[in-house]
Amino acid sequence: MRVLVIAASAALMAAGAAEAKGPAPAKITSPPVPPPVDQALARDLLKELIEINSTHAHGSTVAAEAVAKRLREAGYAASDVQVLAPADHPTKGNTVVRLRGKGLGKPILFICHLDVVEAKPEDWTVDPFKLIEKDGFFYGRGTSDIKGDDAALIESLIRMKREGFVPDRDIIVAFTADEEAQGDANGVDWLLKSHRDLVDASIVFNPDSGGGGLLAGKRVSYGIQTSEKLYATFALDTVNRGGHSSLPRPDNAIYQLSHALDRVEAYRFPLHVTATNRGYLQGNAELESGQTRADMLAVAAATPDPIAADRLAKREDLNALLRTTCVATQLSGGHAENALPQHAQAIVQCRLIPGETVEETRQRLVAAIGDPEVKVSLTAPVKPSGETVPDPKVMARLEATIHGMWPGVIITPSMDAGASDSVHSRAVGIPSYGTSSIWGDLDDVRAHGRDERIRIPQFYEGVEFTYRLMKAMSARE
Ligand SMILES: [Zn+2]
């Protein structure tokens, strides 16, 4: 998953970048890029990875082996570059590499998946499994999600080795399997469970989330992802003895369900402003003006102003930041046109604010519905994962690194609406930060879609950023 979510920018987009309120987003200047030799290597690595098909059906082992070969050739000891796959999923390989440091603290870990979403060549205007350079973009499946960042990480590892750089703390990078398909061989989950010693770290950086967004070619802001909403899907079921449609009765499974849905529609979950979203609202208020700006600051205050929150909640992107949401997504019921329904079912999907539990959410739905005959049950288990409460020391170091590349950009913590692999590292208690390196177009997101692409200058900036980030974050505390 690569989600460029900068929620407030949805409104900027709707308004059109030209009419965006508040101070104009920082113009693209000429940020630093790596030396030519490193640019050439990064491009070559990107090409190699794009041209290895690592969709769910093909698996990631071929890509993992290619990464390992590059790293060994660059001077990494064989014992520090391991290709590992679960015994029952040999095609779902992962590569774990370690740049040894001075032992001045617990290692830091970067995670980045190698698998990509399926791409049907007939849907694309170019071959999805060839790196194609066109109109200032690199095209190919995985360019933005997330082989561009894989290439940046490999290049930086090779560059640091060549330069003889010894970090204060070990830098571990795990190039992993099975993120996209939500399959049963997720590399991050598996490595944390089966090879914890190899990947154990004090902190995780995941370029598959967070990052900078461009609107009409201008930088809007950079989000450091510190939390994500969890999915929980519930089924609402009503049952009835049924009967002949010629003899209707007051009790009816479809009507009963429909009344329940009315109440779900009307119900609003409590306001819940997390540390991440407080920081997000504060930072993004700078992009707004007037009442919206004042409301964002009032909701970000130590005691959020509920009236201001109600005004903001009229915007669906902001409402999603402020509370858990649940919405009906599917409906079925009845078995014949001339029979009273014996069963009706609605699917209601919820996105939980980190820190709220699935059971608490279910109970709130039950209470809102207020009809004990409507059964509310979870359709699939949910892996709990909390928020990484932004650590001021970590944030300061990240901000310095980001501003070293892109001076003046607004930086905020951010919450994604979807799930990234950080869910697994947060679940085992490792603080995890989403720090994508390649700025993407907010008004033209192609990850998972056709003709996926990244801007070429932003790719090289991303490589330089990754190199600086690895060095900065591995420095002793
Ligand atoms: Zn991804």
| Anisotropy-based shape | globular
What CATH architecture of the largest domain would you give? 3-Layer(aba) Sandwich
Strand order of the largest sheet: 1-2-6-3-7-17
| Tally of DSSP β-strands | 19
Give the helix proportion (percent range): 25-40%
* Largest sheet report: 6 strands, mixed
CATH class of the largest domain: Alpha Beta
CATH-assigned fold name of the largest domain: Aminopeptidase
* Strand composition percent: 15-25%
Rounded Rg: 24 Å
The mean pLDDT is 93
How many domains in all? 2
The CATH superfamily of the largest domain is Zn peptidases
Short descriptors:
477 residues; binds zinc ion; Alpha-Beta Plaits; four-stranded mixed beta sheet; Aminopeptidase; alpha/beta; 35% helix
Fold blueprint:
Layout: H1 8-15, H2 36-50, H3 61-73, E1 81-84, E2 94-99, E3 108-113, E4 132-134, E5 137-139, H4 143-162, E6 171-176, H5 187-194, H6 196-199, E7 203-206, E8 211-215, E9 218-228, E10 230-239, E11 243-244, H7 253-266, H8 275-284, H9 290-299, H10 306-312, H11 316-322, E12 325-333, E13 339-340, E14 343-352, H12 358-369, E15 375-378, H13 392-405, E16 410-416, H14 422-427, E17 432-434, E18 440-441, E19 453-455, H15 456-474
Parallel strand pairs: 3-6, 3-7, 7-17, 8-18, 9-16
Antiparallel strand pairs: 1-2, 2-6, 4-5, 5-19, 8-9, 10-14, 10-15, 11-13, 12-14
Helix pairs in contact: 2-4, 4-15, 8-9, 9-10, 13-15
Bound molecules: zinc ion.
Report on this structure.
The chain has 477 residues and is of the alpha/beta class. The chain has 2 domains: 31-209 and 420-474, 3-Layer(aba) Sandwich (Aminopeptidase), CATH 3.40.630; 229-273 and 308-378, Alpha-Beta Plaits. It has 15 helices and 19 strands. The chain has helices at residues 8-15, 36-50, 61-73, 143-162, 187-194, 196-199, 253-266, 275-284, 290-299, 306-312, 316-322, 358-369, 392-405, 422-427, 456-474, and strands spanning 81-84, 94-99, 108-113, 132-134, 137-139, 171-176, 203-206, 211-215, 218-228, 230-239, 243-244, 325-333, 339-340, 343-352, 375-378, 410-416, 432-434, 440-441, 453-455. The strands form 5 sheets. It has a 6-stranded mixed β-sheet. A hairpin with a 2-residue loop joins β8 (211-215) and β9 (218-228). The longest helix has 20 residues, at 143-162. It is globular, with a radius of gyration of 24 Å. Mean pLDDT is 93; it is low at 6-22. Residues 1-2, 113, 145-146, 179, 208 line the site of zinc ion.
